[in-house]
Every structure is written in C-alpha cells, then in structure tokens.
C-alpha cells in the first residue's frame, strides 16, 4: 500500500512531477475525489495553470472523475481564484492544478466542494488519501462526459461588478505576473478600466525564467520596484504563480505591508456593510483590529491558514478576511481568496483621491514589523518552551498558544513563534513601535532559538 503522506498536505496535494506525482496517481486522485463528492454533486469543474505538466495531469484527473460516472466541466487555463469563481457560480466541486509559487518541477491539486468550500485534511483530503492508498473501487455504470467552458470573461465581469472604478482618476500601474496566471487574467479583468497597465513577464511560462513567482520574497519584486520608479507609475502589483495572491508596491517602489492592505480593504468593505465582522490571522499587525474597531467593525482573530480563515468566516458571517501572507478572502466571493479583487480595491481607493499611494497606505501602517524570520532547529518543542520560559517569567507579559506562541509585552510590542508543519523550522514574526524596538526583540528571541 503506497504512503502518500509526503504529498497530501494540510490543504492540497503537491509533489515533484515524475517522482511523486504522475498521471496514473492523479487519475486515482480524480476517482477518489469523485467518490467523496458523488452524494453531493453530479459534476466537477477543473482548471489548470501554465506549468508544462498541468494540462496532462488535469486530463488524467478528469479521466478519474468520469470513470466514477460524474461529468467534468473543463475551464482550461485559469488562475486559482478563477477556478473558485467557476466553483461558486456553477455550484460545482472543483479541482485546480497548480503548485502556486513552487519551482517548475512541482505540481499539485487544490480541491473544493461546490461553492468554493475548501477541502483540507479534516474536510475530505485525508479520506481521499486513504481511498487511493487502499485502492479505488471500480464503477460499473456509465462513464461521465467532459465539456469545455470558458469562464474568464464572466470572472472578470463579476469582479468588476464588486468594485466600482468608473469614477477613478486615470492610473498607471505596473503589473508583474511572474510568468504566471496573472498574465492570463489581468488583460481581461482590466479591459475598459481607466487604468493603464504596463505588463511585466506576462508570457505564460511554467519554468519561471525571470524570477520565482513568489512576491513575498523581496528578491522577486526587485524588477517591479525598479520599473515603477523608472516609468513614474502610480503603483505596482505582483501576483504569485497561480495569481491568487497579490503584493502591492507604492509609487516610490516601496512594498506595502499585506496587513495595511487588509486594513484598507476592511474599511472599504465596512463602508458597504457597517458593523460587519472582519477576520485577521494572528500574525497580521495589531493595527488591523484597531482600525476595524475604529470603523465600527468586529475584528476576529484566527490561526494562520486558509482553512481556519474560511471556517471562521462561515461561522461568523464575516464580510472579509486577510492574512499577512497576502491572501484576501471575501464573503462576496464565496469566502474564497482572490488577490485580483484585493488589487481592484486598492486601485479604486487610490483612484478616488488625488494623493499618492504612499499617503493613502500610511494611515493603515501604524507599527514596524520584522517580516517572517525562519530558523532551522533540531527540536521545535524544546526551543518553543525555552522562549516561553524566558518571557513568561517577566512581569506584565501575556502569552497565548492559539497558534504557536504569541507573546504580548508591556508597552505594546509582541511576537509570534510558530513551528512549520512540514520542515524543521520555527517562524518568528515581531511587531513593535519602531524598527529599533523590532530589531532588539528579534535579536533577543533569536538568541534563545539559535543557541
């Protein structure tokens, strides 16, 4: 019996093509997914990104689905949030073939139920793994059929209907698609808007010849920053490989914190729905819940990870959720994450006023932050306990363990230390009043972790 635990992750299936993932295995995953959702739905919608292996794997998955008697709607090339749109608007379970920002040799599958409801370890993914490991049972009935459907235009129209840019002043923006799916979606979404788009790396190329399609790594936005300064653009937008995350730089080429974007979009959503609930994960800036409360909203704090955000959004009826990883979730988008919709909100806010983006976002950036700092450790638990003991003995320190270790210090500084689920790493995020205080606290915690 094969052991698939190395590729069936918490939220998706992901592995090296040809070594861990091939057409035969993916066909079995398709059949197992069909068995999981057969009581709920007669059809599955499938999309794929621009990686060389994606079309073939998507076809194999479709063969697995149809082998169990379910039909398939293939939307072809798509961003992940375009697949979520198809799942929501067509009310079908979905499968997206992508490895997001991972290197070219990887591929994977993100699964959802009808209405873009996520499928993770606790909501079906473990059951799918068990079915494949034990052998997918055969089906004696009639095979399902495959039809093709283009939803890109409908997806773009749906997003534009949620954010009104008709009154915006003309804007010039640089968009770095990183040779990923933003190059497929941006031209259609931005068509007809009062926005001049200067494209960078829009050619779909799963080998990522220019840089990794991970805009959270500062090395991957250097080209975008330089281009924004060179052409005098109003802003820059970078997308990751499957274009479900967006990262913003201002007119100076300076990165805008995803926490600031979360607060900005939250305020806009609260203007439409006063008193609404806003979800934020525990490593977003403490400025986010402060600003939400100041605008009459109800901030709710969650663990890191999209399954926790989406579950809490469903439980509370939240109108919006944001993560410091630049994932943004909207009730009006089936509680799914869409970087494109967040980008449209930022540009609409910018276009409604005459000042530069740096002035607009400064109101949402109240504190200094370290960003995520990773440390390789032999014993995650022991190092976490050492940090807890060191800080817990101090007067006025508050500690909670909702997700890793969150330590609140007198005076407002705080840090979160979380273990990686897949690597021998501890992830540190620090926030304080200024960069000097941040660095001091970083040094103090790392001295414990790395000794």
From TrEMBL:
TM segment ranges: none
Keyword GTP-binding belongs to the record: no
Any one of the GO BP annotations: carbohydrate metabolic process
Domain Alpha-D-phosphohexomutase alpha/beta/alpha: 7-134, 154-253, 261-367
Residue ranges of every copy of the Alpha-D-phosphohexomutase C-terminal domain listed in the record: 372-446
GO molecular function: intramolecular phosphotransferase activity; metal ion binding
Keyword annotations of the record: Isomerase, Magnesium, Metal-binding, Phosphoprotein
Cofactor annotation: Mg(2+)
Top-level taxon of the source organism: Bacteria
InterPro entries recorded: A-D-PHexomutase_a/b/a-I, A-D-PHexomutase_a/b/a-I/II/III, A-D-PHexomutase_a/b/a-II, A-D-PHexomutase_a/b/a-III, A-D-PHexomutase_C, A-D-PHexomutase_C_sf, Alpha-D-phosphohexomutase_SF
Classification via Pfam families: PGM_PMM_I, PGM_PMM_II, PGM_PMM_III, PGM_PMM_IV
Family: Belongs to the phosphohexose mutase family.
NCBIfam families: PRK09542.1
Full protein name: Phosphomannomutase/phosphoglucomutase
Source organism: Amycolatopsis vastitatis
Lineage: Bacteria, Bacillati, Actinomycetota, Actinomycetes, Pseudonocardiales
């Amino acid at each position: 019996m094969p052991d698939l635990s190395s590729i069936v992750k918490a939220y998706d299936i992901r592995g090296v093509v040809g070594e861990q993932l091939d057409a035969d295995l993916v066909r079995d995953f398709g059949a197992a997914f069909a068995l999981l959702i057969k009581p709920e739905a007669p059809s599955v919608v499938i999309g794929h990104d621009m990686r060389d292996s994606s079309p073939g794997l998507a076809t194999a998955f479709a063969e697995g689905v149809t082998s169990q008697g379910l039909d398939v709607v293939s939307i072809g090339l798509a961003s992940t949030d375009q697949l979520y749109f198809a799942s929501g608007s067509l009310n079908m379970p979905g499968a997206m073939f992508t490895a997001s920002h991972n290197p070219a040799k990887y591929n994977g599958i993100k699964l959802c139920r009808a209405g873009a409801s996520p499928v993770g370890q606790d909501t079906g993914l473990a059951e799918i793994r068990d079915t494949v490991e034990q052998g997918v049972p055969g089906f004696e009935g009639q095979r399902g059929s495959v039809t093709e459907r283009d939803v890109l235009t409908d997806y773009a129209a749906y997003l534009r209907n949620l954010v009104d840019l008709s009154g915006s002043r003309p804007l010039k923006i640089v968009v770095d698609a990183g040779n990923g799916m933003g190059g497929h979606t941006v031209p259609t979404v931005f068509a007809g808007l009062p926005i001049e788009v200067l494209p960078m790396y829009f050619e779909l190329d799963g080998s990522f010849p220019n840089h990794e399609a991970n805009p959270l790594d500062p090395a991957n936005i250097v080209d975008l920053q330089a281009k924004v300064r060179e052409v005098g653009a109003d802003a820059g937008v970078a997308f990751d490989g499957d274009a479900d995350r967006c990262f913003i730089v201002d007119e100076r080429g300076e990165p805008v914190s995803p926490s600031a974007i979360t607060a900005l979009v939250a305020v806009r959503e609260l203007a439409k729905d006063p008193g609404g609930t806003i979800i934020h994960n525990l490593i977003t800036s403490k400025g986010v819940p402060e600003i939400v409360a100041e605008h009459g909203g109800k901030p709710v704090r969650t663990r890191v990870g999209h399954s926790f955000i989406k579950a809490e959004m469903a439980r509370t009826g939240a109108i919006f959720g944001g993560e410091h990883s630049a994932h943004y979730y909207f009730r009006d988008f089936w509680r799914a994450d869409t970087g494109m919709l967040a980008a449209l909100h930022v540009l609409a806010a910018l276009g409604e006023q005459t000042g530069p983006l740096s002035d607009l976002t400064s109101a949402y950036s109240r504190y200094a932050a370290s960003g995520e700092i990773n440390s390789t450790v032999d014993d995650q638990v022991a190092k976490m306990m050492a940090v807890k003991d060191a800080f817990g003995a101090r007067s006025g320190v508050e500690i909670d363990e909702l997700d890793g270790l969150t330590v609140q210090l007198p005076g407002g500084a705080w840090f979160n230390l979380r273990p990686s689920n897949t690597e021998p790493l501890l992830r540190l995020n620090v926030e304080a009043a200024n960069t000097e205080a941040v660095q001091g606290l970083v040094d103090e915690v790392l001295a414990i972790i790395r000794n």
